[in-house]
Amino acid sequence: MSAPEVESNCDVLIVGAGVAGLSLATALGHQGFKVRVIDGAPRPERPADGRDMADWDLRVSALTPASINFLTELGAWQGIPADRTGRYHCMQVWDAQGTGSIRFDAEAVQAPFLGHIVENRLTLQALLQCADQCAGVEVMWGQGLESMTHTEAGWEIACSTGHRYCAPLTVGADGARSRVRALTAMPTRQWSYDQNAIVGTVALESGHMNTCWQAFLDTGPLALLPLADPEKVAIVWSLDEAEHERIASLPDEAFLRALNHALGQDAPAAAVLGPRASFPLRQAHAVEYIDQGLVLVADAAHSIHPLAGQGINLGLSDVRVLAGELVSGKANGLLASDPVLLKRYQRQRKTENLAMMAAMEAFKRGFGTQNPVAVLARNIGLNVVDQQSWMKRWFMEQALS
Ligand SMILES: Cc1cc2nc3c(=O)[nH]c(=O)nc-3n(C[C@H](O)[C@H](O)[C@H](O)COP(=O)(O)OP(=O)(O)OC[C@H]3O[C@@H](n4cnc5c(N)ncnc54)[C@H](O)[C@@H]3O)c2cc1C
After folding, report:
1. What are the C-alpha distances in Å from 10 to residues 24, 292, 335, 378?
2. Ligand 1 center to residue 299 CA distance, Å?
3. Best residue for ligand 1 mutational test, from 37, 38, 58, 61 (most atoms within 8 Å of Cβ)
4. Residues 153-167: pLDDT tens digits?
5. What is the pTM of this model?
6. By mean pLDDT, which of 284-293, 331-340, 352-361 is the weakest?
7. Fewer CB in 10 Å around end: N or C, the chain?
């Protein structure tokens, strides 16, 4: 039997229908591009809209106002039920080994809010609806990428189903363990944080007060992220590997006690525990985001520690910049694969992503030490920033942009 014909009737081929892949497809589809998206997973089911402990997605994201504006432009934000997003106005951060703390308040920068906590599957579902309604976009599920060959017409892609595709530009939006990045041998600097994150849904004894709570412990940061239900939060508890093994294996009652012990007196106490799961944490950064006819976006290009909740926000910024370059190139008669466009994208995004990754690394190292001098210095540092309103404003403006 002969191999199936290569389908090459699109401008851009995106591997990965996560938040990054679907937002890029929608942004380009709205501007008249023909886009095909392939994903190895089956099409996600419509999420349940119940409010019991087990009805909340374990993976949530703190979306910044900039990300929300972009999702609104795409028409996706409107598709996320408003009673399902946790709008937060404050962020309380403290050092569990000392007395340092800092509180960020939206009022201080005349902003209506600092961000929204949104379940990933709702963002994904809303984007999928937008992509489905876009005439030029075709999303194909159950088609895992198997191999890639460079040809004059672009990268030829073979899928697990035997289908083969080719387009002038291929985009790797296939997440932190990007197969596109591996198959095209794009050099990547990566290392393990030697930490795992426990994520889960927790009901509090009192309300969350529309505040994000983040404790820095010597074993890793612990965050409580306010859900749309005023008494429920999502936890993201990053722990060094040995400690993770001990905590993750505790039965529910003992886990709750350990969680409350870690939170101390500075946050509302946890009362009921819902489902929980663990993820290994790795830092990875592709040395180059681009190659001939190829570009990486979001986690496929860079994955970072979840301690500042910036992962998907950086990814959406990549998408916004790349889509902007491709659209302006199209208006000037350039092909989507034009190296000038791809270089411009890389230049803009690499600097910002590297700066954020360096900041996360410094935070992680700074709070991972028990050296008494370092503990004293960082506690003084937190208190100084907390007392200097101009410094706090500066930090917040960075986080909101
Ligand atoms: C514990 C934890 C907590 C986090 N908290 C936050 C937070 O608060 N805020 C925040 O902004 N970010 C957070 N993040 C990060 C955020 O989840 C990621 O940055 C985001 O999901 C990346 O989106 P993406 O579209 O790049 O990749 P993904 O969401 O990983 O999507 C990749 C897609 O590619 C598909 N795929 C993979 N391989 C193949 C293949 N070979 N062929 C075809 N398709 C393939 C997958 O099926 C998937 O649909 C957190 C991450 C973790 C682990």
Report:
1. 14, 17, 12, 53
2. 6
3. 61
4. 999 999 999 999 999
5. 0.91
6. 352-361
7. N
